[in-house]
Amino acid sequence: MAELPSGLLEACVVVGASSEKLRDIYQNKSSELPLLEAEVLQIHAPPFISKETNSRQVMAPAFSRVQKRRSFIKKKRHDRGTDPLPNGDSVTRPEGTSTTEDISVPKDLDLIALPQLCFPGGLQLAGDQRDDSYHYLVFTDLFGNRTHGVVVQYYRAVQSFHESLVQNGSRPKTRLYAAFAVCIISKFPFYHALRDSLSCLLVQLRTSRQGDFEETVKEFSAKLSLVPLPPPGSLHVSFSLRPLQVLLPSREDPDSPLVDMDLHLPLLCFSHTALLQVLSCLLQEQRMVFFSSDWSKLTLIAESLLLYLQPLSWQHPYVPVLARGMLDFLMAPTAFLMGCHISHLEDVAAETEDLILVNIDDGIVQSSWSDTVDLPSIPAAAAESFLSRAECLQIHYDLDSCHTGATTDVNAARSQRRDWQRRLNTQIQNIALELVVNTFRGVQDFLNHEHRVFNSEEFLRTREPADQLFYKKVLETHIFHTFLRDRLNRKLDAFSRMEQKTLNLSHRNRAMTESPRRPPLPKVTRSGFRTHTSPKLSKRLGASLPNLDQPLNDTMASLVLNRHRPQSVRKMTPDVGLKSPPKVVRVFRLPEFPPPLSYHYVKNYYSDMAAALGKALNATPPDESALLARYHYLRGLVNTVSNRHLDALEDFQSLYKTDAEIFPSQMVKSLVDSMPNVERIQAEKRPEIKGLISRVIRDQEREREGQENRSEEAAVKHFQLPKKYLHLEEFVKCVQESGIVKDQGTILRLFDALTVGHQKQVGPDLFKDFYTIWKETEAEAQEVCLPASVLERIETGESVFKLSSSVKTSHGVGKIAMTQRRLFLLTDGRPGYVEVAQYRDLEEVKVSSAPFLLLKIPSLKLRVKGKKETFEANLKTETELWNLMIKEMWAGRFIADQHKDPQYMQQALTNALLMDAVVGCLQSSKAVYAASKLAHFDREEVQLTLPKTTTETLKHKINPSLELAAPQTIEVLYYTLGQLWVSLGGGTVMVFDASSWSLTHTVQVGNARLSCMLAVTEDQVWMGSEDSVIYIISVLSMVCNRQLTDHRAEVTGLALDLDKYR
């Protein structure tokens, strides 16, 4: 049997008190009913249909798992006598000894703790009938894998039948009611679906004889084991368990969590401020305990809150329901998230320290040592956005459905409620995801992917001062470490998609036009959250536009004005800016379950299911490829279970071509391995199936080869200053890890500058001095506060990167400021602005001397185009450095204008700033000479002139390798409406906005070199690769979900026959 993914049912367990204990209690007739010890009475786990019990023909166990299992020894009594049964009947048992029945159960099922968790408050007898009660469990194994359980407690009457006959022949009137629990355990959190299933089971149990109790539960379990789980996407699965139609929702995509619960419950229990406080505690990995008088709330609230933090995931012990005998777990020294009954709140607060106590019933968050929580809050700007959106949510179904009439169909009413809940869940998930994105936006900018380094120190410097303590705590957590690992692995998850979607123009242009590490100057665009959410361009190097002198356009200006409108005028809605086209959800309804679960009937059941899926495939139009892929997935799964291996492989081949994202490679590999030789030979005769098998085997081999790199992929390093002398190779790596600069050519020049007159190695003290001065100049640039009158005279995207000391100039006394566009004088006394020159207008830069008494003071003279007077500044000891820096900026401006490429200006600015840091750290007579080694564009040997014809026709130039450690060859260049697609080596595709020439997306398309591209439709770009595959990219999602794999050689070209489609 091929290995299959887990089905809906992992096990069904019945827990309660043994009949012997119940009989003893009834006979003793104590005035007080004691708490009983619960024990496992029944376990039902797949497989339910097997060769031994059903037929000569081999039938695959219904969605069984090839996994480690163990035995559960179940007692079966055969001694003569009668046993009381919960419904009041008796059963005759013959004399003899007890025997046992060995039942196979999942190995990771904890049968010791399960009875306590099914009755966390204890198993209590009652003198009257009690209402049914549901609660939810989460089990976590040593590897962090979670299993979920839904428990129903229900009461049945119990009485002793040794006293069943009295003198008048009537039964005694005194009755006891004992609680029994049925727990469904699943690998997936289908909380609503399993709760509905248990509700249907109780209907059957109440109408069946007690003697049929075990068989009824077993049949119920077997039915659930026949249910296939829906693949990720917009196709749900439903099945009938009379009287309800039960729905299994699917995940949105393979990386998204499964949501089958009401995500607005925390919003009903907590104020929005308290809710943010709880989320902040989770992000800081505190020791947290939830309390409630309702066991079900503990798990549902905890699960909802963890979903709010997606894609960040909780890494510590997680036990949302603690039985009364498990309270010692709260003494654990590590971070944890646990829950217990509200009655234990005072005892827990008194006996433990450093706990965050969350009272769900009252919506209160406190600590075990105080009525308040003294922990940093979520950053204010992110919290403000969350509060604004959360206040506009409509979380009351009755208010939203006032206009609708009553329905007489219970399933129709449930369907309406589910649709409303699904829409609300989507809104809440978007709002929560935006909170996470706003909190951690920009982390990507401080990662070095080549060396897997996160520059935490620099990231902290860009956060708001009031938020520093929060980030310092969060950056040390496991939850953030895992998040960083996914960023370094370039995982395209919900966070990445929303961050990309909500990037403003300023942030999108930054990678192409801004100095990567110089912060913006004005406080209104201060770094941190507001830097990335402000619609203004960043105060660094301006917009990367074809006309480099263009001011802020009208569209951006209107955005700026709108940003500063009063909050009361700007109406906030829950999902403004977050809306995506509504997704149509389809439901595939499974056939009715067979009455007797024997081999023959189950085989027919799967045949009917495959036929129904075939009809659905035929009725689905070809343009709905996503839906077709889901139908192929389900039918392939059904055919696999039914041992129709070749049919299953055909379905999986169609799935692979339609949507490779949900292709179950491990399942197909196991299916191929389990095929008999006869079927394997038949499969080899079919080209498509043969190709699929070869591809799966090849992918498995690649995966095995990649196992060696798994440890590196899991590592996240923090930048540390070196502690030993650095040779060239080590120096290059250290500088790249520091985030100062990535370009190897620039680093080589920096190495030469720092080693002038010394051995070709950089000492740890020298590197530390250089790094410290680099950071100090960044901090100084951030702290400079320009008056409003000066800000009005410079471009929106400008920052001051270098500020001289106060000097005498030909225009008065003041400080010379260097931005990425110009030089200006910031006059002393009454602050004023005097423009010196824009770099493109310079005609001459030279070092001179100004007479002062009997002295000659070094000065710098600038001759500017269109100005008669020469600007002169007595920069004294700074003269030589400023001369180098201004000449480099002048040369960079000239080349940038000639090439229509602002990246040269960025490189020139980086060179100038490195010169400044080198002079500052060397402090010697050779410092300026050493800094001159970094003058790249101002050297005569640098020939970057273009032919005249190129200069006349060139409009703009971009460098896709700018953020890479070394330049890469451009393999393919392709233009679609508004987008420029650039293919580099190894399947990397970069997409640029054709209006601003800014990088918008980076897509990984296979691992081989791409050779051609073609826009087939408005929302699809096809790419041919040397690995013989045609990859189909969705323009909307920037994801490759479809592939054409019939080719046997490199795809060298693509063409579209337009006449054929007219």
TrEMBL record:
Single GO BP term: regulation of Rab protein signal transduction
UniProt signal peptide: none
Superkingdom of the organism of origin: Eukaryota
UniProt xrefs under InterPro entries: cDENN_dom, dDENN_dom, DENN_C, DENN_Domain_GEFs, Quinoprotein_ADH-like_sf, TPR_DENND3, Tripartite_DENN, uDENN_dom
GO MF terms held by the record: guanyl-nucleotide exchange factor activity
Keywords assigned by UniProt, alphabetized: Guanine-nucleotide releasing factor
Sequence ranges assigned to domain UDENN in this UniProt record: 69-494
Region of interest: Disordered: 73-102, 509-548
A Pfam family reported for this protein in Swiss-Prot or TrEMBL: TPR_DENND3
Coiled coil regions in record: none
This protein's GO CC annotations: cytoplasmic vesicle
Name of the protein in question: DENN domain containing 3
Annotated organism of origin: Oryzias melastigma (Marine medaka)
